[in-house]
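Async update (no meeting this week)

Hi team, since we skipped the sync, here's where things stand on the single-chain job. The sequence we agreed to prioritize is pasted below, unchanged from the tracker. I ran it this morning and attached the output directly underneath so nobody has to dig for it. Comments welcome in thread, and please keep replies under the output.
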Amino acid sequence: MKSIDQKYEKLQQILAGMESVIIGYSGGVDSTFLAKVATDALGDKALCVAALSESYPRHEREEAAEFARRLGLHFITINTFELDNPDYRKNAPDRCYHCKKEILSQLQRIARERGFQTIALGTNFDDLGDYRPGQQAASESGARSPMVEAELTKDDIRTLSKRLNLPTWDKPSFACLSSRFPYGEEISKEKLEMVDRAEQVLREHHFRQFRVRHHDNLARIEVPSDEMQKLLDHREEIVERLRTIGYRYVSMDLTGYRTGSMNEALHQIESPVLNP
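Output:
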């Protein structure tokens, strides 16, 4: 097995070998690390692009811009319009494919207009073991995943980020707001705003890792088991605020926080993606 230092050196070599690169940047652990290493290797020939849409939480937008400023990244934002696509809005299990396809089409446009040669994404080696239809869109577009090529795992990236004093080294995992909906429930701007506002309530109570899963008029809150008592301690205020947002019922998931919990029901859904 390669050591973490060997993997890091490989990543640096991959990026240094690119004439110029656009980094799909979100301000999360992976994309921030990739953006920093690419900027160190290529200077302003590395352009970090954040794609703004209704599914990108307001807090994450602000944080991504702040990280870019602190790290001296060559940074711009663009708007994407995945909600204009009915295949995205209907929220089938291949939703991420349509989202990634929209984002990559906009990144390709920027690359053409500004003369950048390569598009790179912050996919890590661990992501290959999960159900991620967005990877198909990336493959079709010709985008590269340098950290996969270097075999860098999530733990590797956090360790190296800490070495580089990146503010994201211990940042909780992030996923777009559309991941809060059960497959088959149509996504809308209004519903995304509800989830964003509800999660902001938990952020204001200083919960670190959480999700508000949207089930029509019910909000299902996921927090780690060691924060469940804290959620109960603030139950009345949180319930009241989520009701003003539009939820009639507010529940706590006793299973606790876990990434991709909506994927647990995939086997129950008839989809050409899963049942070719």
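Quick observations from my side:
DSSP finds eleven helices and seven strands in the chain.
Strands lie at 21-24, 46-52, 75-79, 118-120, 211-215, 218-222, 249-252.
Reply here if anything looks off.
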